Every structure is written in C-alpha cells, then in structure tokens.
Amino acid sequence: MADLIENPIINSPFEEPKRHFRFDDNGITDEIVPGRRRSTYFIPIAQPKLKAVQKVLDLAIQHRAEENKLINDLRERVAYWRQAGRPYTTATTRRLLEYWTRPDRERRLFFCQIEAVETLIYLTEIAPKQDANYGTSTLERFKQANAGATPDSHAPLPRYAAKMATGSGKTVVMGMLMAWQALNKLANRQDQRFSDAFLIVSPGITIRDRLRVLLPNDPNNYYRQLDLLPPSLLEELSKAKVAIINYHAFIRRERNSAASLTKKLLRTPSEASPFQESAGQMVVRVCAELGNKKQIVVLNDEAHHCYHRRPLDGDEKLSGDDLQEAKQREEEAKIWVSGLGAVQKKLGIRAVYDLSATPFFLRGSGYDEGTLFPWVTSDFSLTDAIESGIVKVPRVPVADNTDQSENPTYRNLWPHIKQDMPKGRGSKDEQQKEPVLPKELQGALHSLYSHYEKAYQQWQVQVQEYPALMPPVFIVVCNNTRSSKLVFDYLAGWEKPLPIVDPATGQGFVLVPGALPVFSNVENGHWSIRPNTLLIDSLQLESGEALTEEFQAVAAREIEEFKDELRARYPGRNADDVTAEDLLREVMNTVGKRNKLGENIKCVVSVSMLTEGWDANTVTHVLGVRAFTTQLLCEQVVGRALRRVSYELEVHTIIVNGQPVTFEAFPVEYAEVYGVPFEFIPTAGVGKPQKQRNTTHVCTIEARQDALMTFPRLSGYRYALASETLQVAFTPACGLTLTTRQIPTVVENAPIVGESTIHRLDDLKQRRLNEVAFLLAKLVLEKYFRQEINTEYAIGGPVVNDAKAWLLPQVLRIAKCWLAECLTLKDETFPQLLLLVELAHDAADRIYQAIVAADSGASTLKPILQPYNTVGDTCGVSFNTSRETYPTNFKSHISHVVLDSGWEGKMAQALEYMDEVHSYVKNHNLDFKIPYTFEGQAHHYLPDFIVRIDDGCGKADLLNLIIEVSGPPLPAKAAKTATIQNLWVPAVNHSGQFGRWAFVEVNDPYSAMQTVREFLGARPQG
C-alpha cells in the first residue's frame, strides 16, 4: 500500500511541471518521478476501498489509456522553441511575451496560462514558415480534424482549443490572446494572420457578465488589474472592437408582431418565416458592436457546448433523463455552432479559440463520450493543476462503515434515494408539507454538515482578526424544483400549517427552523432578515428567460427579502423595478463577496446544475442530489468548488530521490464532495470499444391512453383503534437494532493525492435523548392517530385528519419505554440516529405495533401513503433492457413486458386473450411496491402484474387485480403474500380512494385464464 501523500503540491505554479506522482497498475503511488506527466486519455481520482480485498490500494485509477501523441509532440515543439528564446515572432509578440514572463513581475502568470498562449502563437506565427517540416504537417492535421468533425453541408470553422483545468485562469488567457491578436493587427493592418475585432461567446449570462473584464475600457479590466499590458499598450488596445454575448443571442428573434393564425396563413412550408430574422439579420444584431469589421476572431468560453453532432450510426440508445439531457445539449450545441457558421458566412472568421476544462464530445453527440475535440492544442489537466497547487483538491468518499463491498453510500447517492424523491414538476398551489428526506440523503446532509460546521467555527475565529474573510459555502445540486424545494425547506426552515388561525399572531402557520442551524433562515420564530440559504434555478437564470411561475412561487419570500435588503443598501434605488431574475442573479453571483447582496449566503440549493462561471472561491462542500449522466456534469459541479481562496505563496520543501527540493507554491486547500460519482475525466481519444449487447427500448405508448394504469404508493398500514386509553405490549417484533448497514456513521473522504478526512455524524450525536423520544412520539401521533372526520372549531374552518394531540403524553411515555427496552445499538451507532427521519419512521412503526398488540377492541385497517407521489401510473416509462421481452398489444400502456422468466410472457399472452381484461401492465420500473416485514426488517415486494378486469360489476367499476406469477417457494414468499392479502388490499379498499383491489397467485401460467376466472367466480360480486 502506498504511503499517505500528505502534500500533493510538488511543482511551482509559475514553472513548467518538473515532476509528477507515478501511477502504476493499481493506482497512485507516493513516488515522485522527474519530468512532466504526459498528456493522456484520463484523469484519475480516488476510488473506493474494496472491503473484501484488504491489499488493494486506497487510491486507485478507474481507466487505462494511451498518451495523446499530437498534444505531447506539439508540447515538446513549443518547449524547444521557448528554450531557444522564442525566435521568429513579430516585434509586438516578442514584447508581449517578454512582458508576461518577466521574472520580477509582481503578479506572476501561471505557467499553464503562458503555455496555452505560446502554443497558439507558435501555430500562427512559427509553424507555417519558420518550422515548415513539422509545423505545416501539424497545421494540416488540425485542418483535417476540423473538416472531419463538420458535416458536409457546413463550412469547417478554423478552431483551436486550449484545455485548462477549472480554476487555472482561462479568462486571463482570453485577455492575453485578444491583446496579442489586436496589437499585432493595429501595428500592421496588412497582416492577415491577425484581427482587432472579437466576438466572445459564453454559455450563459453569468459568464457573459463576468467576461466584461476583457473590455479594455471597463474600469475593472484584467489588462490593468492583472498587469497584462503596460499603460501605453492598453491605450492602443482600446481601439479594438469587442462584442460579448451568451450563445442564446444566436437564436433568431421575431421581427414583426402578428397573430399566430396570420403567421400560419402567410407562411409557406418551403420558405423561411417572414416574421423571423434571417441568419444575416441575426449576425448584424449580434455583432453590432463590431461595426463593419470583417474576418473576426471568436473566443468560445466553456467551448465543450459547441460542436456539430454526428449521426448516431450504431451509437448507444438513450432513454429517460439521459435522452432528455442529450436532446437539450444537442439543441444548445446546434444553436451555438450554427450561429458561428452564420457569422463566418457573413463576416468571415479569422480564428476560433476554444477555452474549456473539458473540450470533449458529450454523451448523445454521436461520438463516444469523452472523445477529445480533435482541434485541442494544449492540455493542462486537473491532476497537473493539483500538483501545481493552482486549484483546490476534491475529496470524495472512498470508504464508510457500512458493509457494502462496492461504492460507499455517499459516493453515488442518487441510486439510493431516487425512488423516494418527488417526481415531476410542482405546482404553485401545492400544499406545504413537512420536508421528509430519504435516510441516505438526510444522513449525507448531516455527515457533510458536521465537517462543514468545523470549518465554519474556524472561520468565526479567524474573522475576528481578518474581517474581510467570507464564510465557507455549502452547495446542493438537485434534479428538479420539487426536490430542491424539499431540501431547501429541510435546511432553511418551513411554514407548518396550523389547524386553526393563531389568535395571537393572526397566522395559520408556525415557522419550523431548518434542521442544520448554520443554514436555517428561521431565527427566534421569524424569517431571518438576511437569509443564510439561497434557492436558485441557475438554468433559467442563465438563459435570460423569465423564471417559471412554479419557481417564482417557491422563491417568492426570498425575492421579497432580497428586495428589502436592496432598499436598505441602496436607498435611492427602486427595488420594485428590479426583476426577480436580475435580483437572484445578483445574489448568486455575489456569494462570497464582501458588502454585496450574497455575502451572507452560506448554503446554495440549486434547482439545476450550478452554472459554469459561477466563481465563488469560498465553496468548500458539495452535495449532488441528482443523476449524473455524464462525467462532464460531474466535473462541472465539482468545478464549482475548485477555485482557491488563498494565493499567498509559501515555501514548499519535498524530498525527491532522497534530496530536498525547495520551491514557492500556494498552501493546500481541499473541497469535500458527496453524491457526485466523479470517476474519471477523459481528455482525449476513445478507449477500446466494448461489445454492445442487444437491447430493447421499453416505453409508454401515448396512443394507448385507454390502457393507462394508476396505483397507490404506500409506505405502511395503520389501524383505527377502538380505545384512546393506550396500552403497550412489547413483543420481539417491536425491537429495532441500529447498525451501520442502515446508514454510514463514519465516512472517509480522500483526494487523488493529499490528506484524507474522516467525517462523522457529530451534530446528531450531540442532540439530547429527550429530543429523540419527542420526535418518535410526534411521528406515531401524526402517522397513526388522526381524526377521521371533519371537526369544526370555534375559530377557523374544518380540519381533515388532524392529529389527536391530546394523546401525546401517553405516546411520549410509551416512546421512552421503547427506547429503554427495545432499541439495540451495534458498533459505531447511537440513539440519536433515530433523528434521521426514515429511521425514525421505522422506530415509530415498532412503537405502534406494540400499541396495536395491546389493543383488545375492534380496529379498522387504513393505508399510509407515501409523502410524495402518492399515486403512481404508467406514464413516462422509458428505458433500455438487454433482457428478453414480450411485445404487447393495445391492452397495455407499455410497449413490452420484460421477462424475468418465460412465465411472464405466457401470462401476458393469456391476459391479452381474455375478453374480461380491459388493460394490464407488467410491474417493471413502475415503482409499484408492497411494504412488508420479514425477520424483523422492513422490505419491499414487487408483484408481477396489475390488471384492470371486469369481475361482473361492469366496465364502469373495474376491479384492479394484482397477479403474482409464482416461482419456487422462497423464505420470504409467505410474508409477501400474507402482507398483500391481509394488509395492503384491505387497507387500500377501506380507504375508498383508489377503486377496488384484489390479489391472486398464479402457480401455472398455462392455466392462467382458468385460475383468474375461478378466483373471480369465487369472490362476492362487488
């Protein structure tokens, strides 16, 4: 096993890397190898510890790849030219290079910034004539690469890309490129290699606004701030023409207003719309600030969004979220690259310079995911940036104290929680509910927060001496508005509806503080004047479009509070004239900035992926609560935490081959990351293709709407007890054992190189035991003891199913007895783990079982519905499977039955032949499951089919029949069938909300029709 690499920084950021950590077949080693790391096809990071194999290295790499020969050869050629004194350049270029590389510069530029510019200078000024043999062949390779990635119907763009890790200063490189191009053109108007007109294109408004530092006349321009130019040259540069846009500006706009019917009548299918801009008109609008300039230079920031899609010949088939995200990326890329094509056609483009940390094709692009843009000229990878101390080092979970043999729970969180998270879009009228999180998500938040809290306490001490320091920032990236609102309410606090209006306050709700104190927006029973946690939808904010009504509804209070703060900070400014979009964008972009609207924000909950270019350098903790379908998404969200806080140099001393080596570099900084399966980042080429299995696309067929099926989603069952004098009888079934199998209590976070950290649930462990007992009693009351009829109060209206609060003293007493007598704690566990709501619900179920066991009266069974998505259906099914399938007919809303065995196909065929059957569906990827208990543990059972069938009551009152096609008897089978027959079906039928339900078991599919008909004949009609 490799020794712990305590300090990952082994190079100066201002010099070409002189050494690197060696990787072997097992992963990272602590051996420092002289020389620079070759550009390769991957960037490795920490991999999980395999608990079953103790000798495996802690830090291993996921993928093997070959070197990128073109980049490495070009790198060596540029280095040779650099060592020779960079001859054969223009006088202007020579002056700039000397100014940028002066050893006495107060603000020294990173080597990676110098190298990126040097490479493009070499390809422009040296390669064509001064290095003819190698240079001309290299230029031809890039030309062919551009042509090969461009469809025949489009003219290739003259593109070159610089690959630079997030946080390594791409904007500075853009400024250097603009200065080099413009000053050369201004010095010699006849030199066709250069231009003094620039179109800068960004992926969103945040980056567009941030790139104003590239305008020579901007008061905060980088040329002056970072000393990129002497004052005399800065004045000359101000003659250049610059336009900065986000790619959405390429979308053609409506020119004339007219009714939709008028537009339809006047437009012919073969002609362009007379009401929409032509391509040429769009270019005139976008490039208006460039005047009459021709042959411009384009700079694409985050250029991995800009490419031509290749037809999906034999490419992987996408479905569900993967398909939707691929379509969205494809549309973005099409708008961007076609817009540049229009600019090239009308104005001409001298060169396109792409800047990106990940300049490769994405999933669904027609190329294998991770294929590097073939026009990449230089590469400074994340590993290089880490070893040079330019960025923070991301630490991800590599181990925890669960008994999993694969990934730690918090490494890739989404698969553990996705079925229990809200689906679809919320409604602005959706009723406020208590934020109930899956235990894995709640545990991840508390575990990561425990580490954050220590960093926050350290900041509180430091800020006393250094008031300019901003607090550390915790970010959560969610998949949709409902999920983000759920997490936001849990962290920031929420409004709990009251059964009656409080006469003292006149309000029908009470404020519940957030579960994590530093992030709570509730203080002393009121909303904080300055919120600690921010909820944003960065995708909407970046496009420049208006926020949806849905989002404005959930963020209304925040928006008003920020308007109040705006009025207080700027008394003369009319906050009502500021749009909600502009206001939230301002808050988001000033997180971590002193004396700005966002300075107090400590937690950001994002509805969609946090935008690239969001450059808060105070981010220290990241949690992903969504699916990550590409590694670009992984690096994008991790990249939000890579920007350093401190750039104060210190002396580093390392031992290389037994000898001490000393150099200046920055101190090590880390970022803690949960829930982002950040495995590798391909940087070029394509790995060996794997043989693909034949797959079938299973999906909802919209034309079969008559066959739509719905079903209730239950989390448990309850009884309406006969007596309100509660007794208790603790049986063995009432016991609960807490182990780390249920939730990790110790998590090890590690970087690819550097120091690991251990995260524990410290903030939970410090909570009082009385708080645990009270939570359990509250859950038992709210879950199981509710009034069954509307109750009129003297003040207020009718209240349905309000909890029987007068039973709280009895239930609290029982909960304390249960904690003392029925809770068993294994290693590394403690009673406060029951504050995690999902575990608390499990404990509440056991307490309720003890109360039911002691009840001697008659009771009625009722269902307990899931807190979110209480009704499931067959809409929106879309997935690929390599299993055998049976194609369905009009009786099924779903295109295929997925066969676990041949019996399911025979059963489906029988159902299609039966006239009594109106519709049916195989329960696969529907999330229809039956909660049951086996050997004292909670489980879920997935029955095979749901059938809507006429049992004699007519088509207006069809029976919902659950069919199980039984295989060999297994130990849990009896528990499953007993639960569905004795609990699930009676509870659902007693509720009266979901129609009539029944269950039948088919032991022989070849007599399935007979079995079903005999079952129906034996049932009482209705």
Keywords summarizing the entry:
1022 residues; alpha/beta; eight-stranded mixed β-sheet; six-stranded parallel β-sheet; 27 helices; 38 strands
Write a concise synopsis of the structure shown:
The protein has 1022 residues and is α/β, with parallel strands linked by helices. It contains 27 helices and 38 strands. Helix 10 packs across helix 11 (320-346) and helix 22 crosses helix 23 (808-822).
Overview of the structural elements:
This protein is of the alpha/beta class. 32% of the residues lie in helices and 19% in strands. The protein has 27 helices and 38 strands. The strands form 13 sheets. The protein has an 8-stranded mixed sheet with strand order 15-16-10-17-20-9-25-26, covered by helices on one side. It has a 6-stranded parallel sheet with strand order 5-4-6-7-3-8, with helices on both faces. Strands 33-36-37-38 form a 4-stranded mixed sheet, sandwiched between helices. β1 (19-24) and β2 form a beta hairpin. α1 crosses α3, α3 runs parallel beside α5 and α10 packs across α11. The N and C termini lie far apart (69 Å).
